[in-house]
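Researcher: I'm comparing several assemblies side by side, and this is the next one on my list. It has 370 residues spread over four chains. Same procedure as the others: predict the full complex and return the structure.
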Amino acid sequence: MPRAGLSTAAVVDAALDLVDERGLDALTLAAVAERTGVAAPSLYKHVGGLAQLRTLMAVRIMEELTERFTAALVGRGGADAVATLMRTYRRYAIEHPARHAAIPPDPLHDPALASAGARLLEVFLAVLRGYGLEGAAAIHTTRCLRAIVHGFASIEAAGGFGLPEDLDTTHEQLVRMFIASLPRT
Amino acid sequence: MPRAGLSTAAVVDAALDLVDERGLDALTLAAVAERTGVAAPSLYKHVGGLAQLRTLMAVRIMEELTERFTAALVGRGGADAVATLMRTYRRYAIEHPARHAAIPPDPLHDPALASAGARLLEVFLAVLRGYGLEGAAAIHTTRCLRAIVHGFASIEAAGGFGLPEDLDTTHEQLVRMFIASLPRT
DNA sequence: GCCTCATGGCTATGAAGGTTAGCCATAGCT
DNA sequence: AGCTATGGCTAACCTTCATAGCCATGAGGC
């Protein structure tokens, strides 16, 4: 009975690979167990259960997103930064639709997700701070931005825009719309 | 063994009541069966299974939404119509968060949902047509509007806006942003 | 080099849920 | 009154999550 040498991180890795390949609905402990070469109950030695596996995945995904944003935003400011943030978010959702769908809508409500969620939120706030927005105005504008990027990415990743018109064009229109709504710098 | 006098419509009614009360995740054939006073397998006499029950619910929900929109929009046009559409959508999602969450993102991909989805889409297009938008421009702008209202409503209905700032204010900012992006009439 | 014991596997088991098969009483029609 | 389609039912099966409890591994101390 040789050991598989599993770890919590390895289980999360396998789960992420699984949803990338077969979609979020395919995330089942049995499938993760098969992929890691272990019986399903053995996963409980590394992970508290399906629910906890989902939150661990969400943390990883939010960290990955935050990292992508910060990498894409270095040296940028103003409208350029806003547009880059929106395009980077969209690209991530296209590349990893299942991961995008796994992002919880209310990360701040779960202590295990709160800090990763707060760091992600901070990226949005930082971009708008470069626009002179602070306090309540920054919160309202961040919410608008979040609603826009989340809404577009969710629908696109789900294949919800059925008609043949070009989606890049639609997205650029959305980028212009949001930037035009910001205060003149 | 007296008959319960069930029908497909009655099963869908019970399912809608159930998700209204206990959330979308509580939608289970066992729960619907209990609520209708019948054993779970008996539901199969009226409904093809859980998946079909979900699409039947989605059809009902989209029809209900279309009806609300048309009722709210009579006699309105231009910016007033756009704002009314956005506010009506938001109100529906607040009143019925589970129903809103049950709306499929890609209704046009399922033949059973296509016509209800197309009627709903037509409301959006009609509102923008009053703005002189037609053809590809109307499609792009409808997509923007859909992304905005869907994104905001999804996050709000899920309790995703954690901070205490007033959400009405945020939504009105979003309404102004979208209307400002439309061509001058 | 051996012992100990925490660790990480395993099998067995059970509870929920979806689904199918097949039976039978009811109710409506002739 | 009798036939038959219909709409209930029970029994059974499969999948999945989860728990319990067993046992081999293997690292650290002696």
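Model: For your comparison table: The mean pLDDT of chain A is 96.
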